[in-house]
Design a protein that fits this description.
The protein is an alpha+beta fold and about 525 residues long. It has eleven helices and eleven strands. The strands form two sheets. Strands 1, 2, 3, 5, 6, 8 and 9 form a seven-stranded mixed beta sheet that branches. A four-stranded antiparallel beta sheet has the order 4-7-11-10. It is rod-shaped, with a radius of gyration of 53 Å. About 20% of the residues are buried.
Amino acid sequence: MISTEVIFFLTIVSCVLSAPPTYDIFTRIRKDVFENYDKYARPAENIEEVNIINFRLSVNQIEDVDEKSQVITTRAWLKQDWIDRRLTWDPSNYSDVDHIIIPFDLIWYPDIVLYNGVDWLWDSYTLPPASLVRIFSDGFVDLGIPVKLRSPCLMDLLNFPFDTQHCHLKFGMWQYNGNESYLSPIDDYVTREDYIENSEWDMVDSVVRTRMQKYPCCIFFYSMLTYTIVLERKPLYYIVNLIVPCFTLTVLTLFTFYLPSDSGEKMTLGISILLTLAVYSVIISDSMPPTSTGIPLLHQYVMFSTGLCMISVIMTTIVININHRSAKTHKLRTWVRRFFLEILPPYICLCTREHGRKSAKRSDYSRELHEAAEGDQSERHQRSNGVHCDDGPCNQPHALHNVTIIRNANENNSGSMELHSLEHDNEKFDACKETDSDVWKNKNDTNNKTRNIEHSAILNELYTRGERIEKHVEDIAHYVRSIEYETEVIEDWKLLAAVVDRILFIVLTCACFVGTCVMLFSRGDANDT
């Protein structure tokens, strides 16, 4: 007799040899499930049944954000699942196979599209023909496909480059209305699977909103899912390449007022900075879309810097004009001299000039010149009337007065010139005085008349030379005084130009600081809202 063990072994072998191959099982499932299946019919038992489509958007990469075209390109995974009761089987009848994978074009699937795609509608979100779908034995259909989505994103660049953008992806059914199919989000946010970081943007937040929307063309409501992706720009690139250079140029604009007014590079520096800021403005404008809704923050800062530079160029022109004024062309008013040259300089770290002492010196010069002119007119009047002194012409007070005036003029001019001819004439005058004394002591001599005549001729010649010398000395003294006066007035104008420069430096420095702080605070307020 055959043993029980042998019989059991043969039974097992026969069962194994009689089991169909795995591919035959899949073929049987497909044949049995799809025997009477109509992929164009909605999987509903009655007309009132609504198919629930579970939907999930999983972003893989923010590929590109084009500010100029205002388009965002996103690589994502779209997961959809639903129940199709026509696609069911009993796994126990098919070697416990509970799911199969088939091409999705063999079954019914929802016609979900990206409503706000920038390309042609079906190219915005089109399922690739070679995509496969997984079907479970209970009728659960799981579909997940990778897609590349291009959608418009209205850019709010008021805070550029510290801006935050809200981009919307609007998914919905194209043909099936809300009474037939309903989109239900699996998650209330955008998931990130194998997310690849973008070098310029960070995805900081996301939210999904479900709604039923009615269009003017149709009488039905349609189920819609709107995903909002919040992107925050990484500003490091713009800080290094735009903000820091602009701030540096603004600081250089302030130091334009620190250059001396006599420097020829003052205007050159201001105009060079202005041209550089104009170039930066063009670069920023080219990188942003043309819009009239507002001016970006960075562009505002460049315009602010350009305005400061323009003001500096204009004020530099005025300061240079003040610096080159003189007594012949302009008159410096007393209150201007008093306030800007005497009171204000110590408060802005500038030195004042001693105007009181120099004004007194100019008054002394004028008084001496007036006295000399009056003495000269009196002496000429006496000579014209034939008046002669008994003490002799050499002892005239006018001669001593002439010497005094000459000496005073020489001292007042601080040794600027030495009147050698005057000393020579004084020696002649002293010799004449001694000779005149001898003549008056020997009045009884018989040759007195002849000698008196000779002495009178010599004295007349000396008087004539003294008058000419006095006139020349007065002219020289007047010329030197006028030169000193003009030099002092020019120095006053230069000091006034330096004071105006320092005032502008302080004012524009404060304006730059305040303007920068205002822009930063306004940026913060805008982000909060």
